[in-house]
Design goal:
Length: 187
């Protein structure tokens, strides 16, 4: 059986994109996510939106405005929505069972925040032997005390390019590279 791909879009929620929490290149990142999601849908590959559910914590409470996905995302009824509860999307969520049910072996990962939930999910997916492609211009974060958001993104793209995979593989490619090198998205 060939590798079945899925697109993960992590934590692109209104509560993470406020005047108090500015993020790097939000419009560009969302535009690229929407374009990639459309390619996945056309190839009949799953598009999975991950939403942090902080029910009981007072933040990102399910069904509140801050829990909602950004209005600029083109979410379709055929897309899959999965709640997460900590940085690692796999921890105590339905993601692993859903990926198994769909026979997904390859993940394309995008989202917010580069240095928290995106990073944790990539590390976790590696230990689960997935083939991983990180969309290098498809994740974002905010300014940090010692690094600009742009430098954080640049740093993590470098880290991921230099990681040792388990049984799977790990690639870091921007959207244009993915479009050139992943012809099965154009079926």
């Amino acid at each position: 059986m060939k590798n079945k791909k899925a697109l993960l879009i992590i934590d692109m929620q209104k509560g993470s994109f406020t005047p108090k929490t500015p993020r790097f290149d939000v419009d560009g990142v969302v535009k690229r996510m929407n374009e990639l999601a459309e390619l996945f849908r056309k190839a009949e590959s799953p598009v999975i939106y991950i939403q942090h559910d902080g029910t009981g914590t007072g933040e990102f409470e399910k069904n509140t405005m801050e829990w909602e996905l950004l209005d600029s995302l083109n979410v379709k009824p055929t897309d899959i929505l999965i709640d997460k509860y900590v940085n690692d999307v796999f921890y105590n969520s339905e993601l692993k069972s859903k990926l198994t049910e769909l026979n997904v072996t390859e993940l394309f990962i995008t989202g917010c925040a580069t240095d928290f939930c995106v990073e944790s999910t990539i590390q976790s997916a590696l230990t689960k032997d997935y083939n991983i492609t990180i969309v290098s211009d498809g994740h974002t974060t905010g300014e940090r005390p010692h690094l600009t958001a742009k430098k954080v993104i640049e740093h993590y793209n470098w880290v991921w390019k230099n990681m040792i995979p388990t049984k799977g593989k790990i690639d870091v490619k921007n959207l244009e590279e993915i479009k050139r090198t992943t012809p099965q998205l154009y079926i």
